[in-house]
Structure formats: C-alpha cells, structure tokens
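Please go through the protein record below and explain what the tokens say about the fold. Record follows.
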Amino acid sequence: MNPDLAPRTAPELSIVVPAFNEQEGICAFLEQLAGVLRSCCTACEILVIDDGSRDATWMQLRSAQVQIPNLHGVRFTRNFGKEAAILAGLRQARGKAVIVMDADGQHPPSLLPQMLALWRSGEAQIVAAQKIDRNTDSLPARLNAYCFNGLMHMLTGLELSGASDFRLLDRRVVDALLAFPEKVRFFRGMTVWTGFVTRQIGFEVAPRIAGNSQWSTAQLTRLAITAITSFSAKPLGMIFRLGLLGMLAALLLLLQALYSWITGVAVSGWTSLTVVVLLFGSATLLSLGVLGAYLAQIFDEIKRRPEFLIQETLEKPAEN
C-alpha cells in the first residue's frame, strides 16, 4: 500500500480504470460509469490510474471529482504501461470485488449489473467479459489481435480469443494476484492461470468515446513477447528442435560430400549450399533473439526495481 494514500473503508466494489491520454473522453466515461453504479452498487469506489498521460487527463479527473465524490486517482511519474497501471489499481483497491475496465468507453458500463449478479450469487469468482466481435476495430487491429491470440494459444496453451482485461475479480483472486512475486506481469493470462471459478459474459465492443487507440503494432509485439516468455518455455524447446534439424542437415551434406569425394564426382550445388547457409544463419540469429528475450525477462526480475512510481494521488477532500 502506498503510504501517501489515506485508509478508506472497504466498499463492496472497486472499479480500476487505467487511463493514458484520455482527456477528451474520460469525463463522459466516468459520468456514464457513475450513473450505472448508482443503480446497482452504492458502496463502491472508482480508481483511475493515470499512466503518465501527456495531455490534460489528470486535470479532467480533478474536475470530475466534484460530481463523483467516490472517485480516486493515482498519477504515475511517466508512462509505465497498462500492466503496471492495473497492478497499481489492484494494490489500492479495497473492494470485496474489483472490476478492471478501460477508460475509452469500449468496455460498456451497462454490463456491470450482470457481472455483479454472477459474483453475488456465488457462481463465479472471476467474471470475464468476452468480445463477441471486433467490428469497431480497424483491419490492422483485428489482424494484430488474431496473430497475438494465435501465438499465445500455440506457445502457452492459453485460449485468449475474444478475451479482454474487462473482468470482475473476487477479493480472493485479487489477493492471489498481488501475492505473485514476479515483476513482469500479464494480467489477462495470470487471471486465467489462477484457475478460480470463471464465468464468461459476451459483449459487443462499443466505439471509443473520443480519440484514437493508443495501441500500436510495436506495443502489441512487446506485450506478446512479455506474455509468451512469462508463461511458456516452448520457444526454447523449438530452438532445441531447430538445432537437431540443423545437425541432421549437416550430416546429410557431409555424407553427400564424402560420396562425391569417393566417387570422384565434382561437387556441385553452390546455390543450394548458399540457401542452407542463409537459412541456418538466420535461424541462429532468431534463436539468439529468443534467448535474449528470456534473458531480458530475467534481467528485469533481478533488478528488483518498483513496477511504477507515483507522482501524486487524488483523494476525496477532507470534510470540515
């Protein structure tokens, strides 16, 4: 717990909202969220984690607190990434249940009553909202998501097609996630890994309230590398099998060379030899890259640096 934050009475529900450069739509989203919460859960808190926004997101939060007194905020010193923002929100959340959702409006607040009903009935400790379709996403975004989910399923065994960070977690699940010692995290996969009773609810992705997505192909690639190296050693096994294949190919070329030498046949096939050299030279570099990704993961872990740094917090003003 951050000592800068004053203790709060534990509510029934905490809403964790990571936000990065959402000045244009954050107030409209919070008003919509607060309106839904008034009808389904009065004992709640809203925690917005400003992930080092370079626009006026933090100032908008200050303004919104006048109309939404149960709004709290944490502002990072810089952009540490969505995973760090989610972790910060989970650490500050006091609710018996915690819902994580995006600030752009694509995770519809209207789904909250259904999620709470499943949790309150005891049917689920995790309620995961699944995307029914991606019609609001651009073609490159859909392609990126398809490749990401396919790689995750192939290399880690986690089925994340249609999955999102929009999910409700029971307090037991939150405490379990916070007990994990690793620094490098992949929230979506970690909640699946815990194995707590999970129910899924489908939702159609709504258009963004304002602005454009902050996710790029490069960011999604980095997330995929982090997720895969965090959850699976299969890429290392693939390198081993590639090495065996290379040894087999080298043995066959050796046998061919010996046969040509014994029979006195001139050695031919410079083109094929060049192809083989280029193929396995590239494979070697790729293998070094995979090993480097795992070493970078280990390096980040052993440095033991904090996952994020907080610049300031937004708390409810003291009553006179």
Summary: The CA atoms of residues 147 and 224 lie 10 Å apart.
